[in-house]
Amino acid sequence: MDEINSKVFYDMVIRVRGHSRIYLRYFLDVRxxxxx
Length: 36
Known about the structure:
Layout: H1 2-18, H2 20-32
């Protein structure tokens, strides 16, 4: 169980690093919604 969880977490970290710009832009857009 621990090994599987660690692999999934590591995969998520790689995806976040690879798509950091997309996630950051999406996060900023979501935060900006209430301002509009």
